[in-house]
Amino acid sequence: MILALAMSGCNKKAEDHKDDHAEDEAKLKITAYNDEFELFAEADPFVIGEKCNVLSHFSHFPSFTALENGSVTIRLITGGKEVTQNLDKPTRKGIYSFDIVPENEGTGKLIFDIKTEKGTSQLIFEPVFVYSEKSKADEEAHKLDPSKTNTIVFTKEQSWKMDFATSLPDYGSFGQVIRTIAQVNSAQGDEVIVAAKTDGIIFFKGENLSEGTGVSSGKVLFTVSANGLADNNSMVRFTEAQNNYSKAKADYERQKELAIDKIVSDKELLNAKKEYENTKVIFESFSSNFSSSGQSIVCPMSGYLKKLYVENGQFVNAGQPLISVTKNKKLMLQADVQQKYVPVLSMITTANICIPEEKKAYTLEELNGKVISFGKNTNDDNYLIPVSLEIDNVGSFVTGGFVELYLKVESPLKSISVPVEALLEEQGSYFVMVQINPELFEKREVSIGGTDGIKTEIIKGISKDERVITKGAILVKLAQATNALDPHAGHVH
User: Fold this and answer.
1) SS3 of 479, please?
2) Where residue 473 falls among pLDDT bands split at 50, 70, 90?
3) How far apart, in whole angstroms, are the C-alpha atoms of residue 351 and residue 349?
4) Phi and psi of 95, rounded to 5°?
5) CA 206/CA 371 separation, integer angstroms
6) DSSP code of 421?
C-alpha cells in the first residue's frame, strides 16, 4: 500500500466542462502507487465548506493501461472527520471525477478504495492540507508549482493509447560486462548422427525426408539394399548367415542327443555349441533390422531432422553419416573472448543473450541456462579464450546462427541502471525522460557506463528515487518536437 509521491500545482480552469484553462487558478497534482494501480489526480486546493473537484486518473500497474471498469470511493480524513464519495463507474475511461466538501481544517490524508471484479485495492496520499481561507490555499498550491523548464506535457489519455511505462531505476550490482558474439549449436547429448550399417543403395522410407521434419524414436527412415551388387551384397551375406545358423543349430542339437549316449566327446559337444552361438549372434544382428528389401535404418530418438547428408538412391558405405537428429531442447552457446578477460572469467555469474533479428533479449535465468566452461589456454590457430554456455531453446534460436552475448561479472559495488529502451540518443549524447508527475516529464541528459543488452548503467544524471519513462520515451520526445499535443487534451472537469 503506499505511496504519496508528488504534490504540485498547475494553472488550469474548466468552463462549462470544456478544456479552457485560466492561468491564475491553482491545481494540486496528486500521485500515488501501489502494487496494482497508479493514481494521478488534479485537485482544487482544499478549503473548508467549499466544493473541491478531484479529477482522478487510474492506471493498471505495471501495464499502465486505463481502469475501465470498477467502483472507486474517495475518503478525505482530517481531524478525525471523514468526507466520502463513491463512483460506481468512470466518468470516462480511466477517469473518475469526484466532488467533495472538506469539513475540518488541518492536515489529513486522501484514501482511494478501488473495487473491481478481480478484488479490492487501496491507494493513500498524504499529507493533505485543508485551509480555512481560499486565498491561503491557492497561495500554498502555487508554491508547489514545478518549473516547466525543459519539460514536456504528455497526458494520461495519450499514454493510455500507446505502449507506455515508467519505473524507478534499478539500484544494485552492475559489474563488468564482456560483450561478444556466440554461435548457437546443439547441446551435447541433444543431437545424434545416424550412420549406415552396411554398404548399399539407400532408399527413403515413406514420404520424402527434408530438414526440419519431425521424427519419432523407432521410426524406420531408410533401407540400405545391396540387391544387385556384385560385391559385398548384404542380401547374400544375410542368406549365408541364416544358412550357417540353421546348420549350426541342427548340428548342436544332434550332438547333444549323441552326447547322452557318450557317442561324441565333451570337446566335440563344446565346439558344436560354440559354433551354434557364434552363428546365432551373426544371424540375429542381421535379422533385427533386416528385411527382404534390405537393412532398415531406424531413428534412435524423437526430435527434428537437422541435417540430411544423402539423397534417395545414393550408394553409401558402412559407417557413412546419413542424417543428424536433434531434440532441439537444449542449445550450446559457444563464444570467444579476448585474453585480457582471463582474470575475471571465473567470476562470471550470469549472462544476457540478445537476438539481433528480433531485437529481443533474454537473461540466462529465463532460459534456465548456466555457464558450462571457459578455456584456460589458447591454441595455435585461435588466440581467443573459448566460453561455453547451455540454455533451453525457447523457439527463437536457430542452430548454426549467431547471437549477441553479454557475460556479466559480479561486483560488490551498487549503481543505478535503466532499461535500454529508456535511453534517447542525440548526436552522441544520451537522455532519459524523468517524471515530474505522470503528465509532466523532464528531458534529462545522463552519462552512461556499460550495458548488458537489457539495462544500461547510469553514472550521472539521475538519482535512484527519480521515476523515468521506460517504454514510449521516443513518442514523448516527438510530442515535444511537433508541439502537436494540447497539454490539457482529454481532461474532463
Assistant:
1) helix
2) very high
3) 7
4) -115, 130
5) 42
6) G
User: Would the CA dihedral through 314, 319, 320, 323 be positive or negative?
Assistant: positive
Half-sphere exposure of 27 (CA within 13 A, CB side): 21
Alpha carbon distances (Å) from 257 to 63, 247, 251, 262, 276: 87, 16, 10, 9, 15
What CATH number was assigned to the domain covering residues 4-145?
A: 2.60.40.1930
> Of the ranges 134-138, 185-189, 204-208, which is most confident?
134-138
Distance CA 387, CA 137 (A): 65
Q: Is the torsion defined by CA of 360, 348, 462, 12 positive or negative?
A: positive
- Identify the CATH class of 192-325: mainly beta
What DSSP designation does 283 have?
H
Whose grid coordinates read 534529462? 444
Dig out the grid coordinates for 93 from the structure: 475511461
Q: Which fold has domain 177-188+329-409?
A: Elongation Factor Tu (Ef-tu); domain 3 (2.40.30)
Rounded to whole angstroms, the Cα distance separating 111 from 30 reads 12
User: What count of other Cβ atoms lies within 10 Å of the Cβ of residue 140?
Assistant: 15
The model's pTM is 0.71
Could you tell me if 443 and 433 are in contact, meaning their C-beta atoms sit under 8 angstroms apart?
Answer: yes
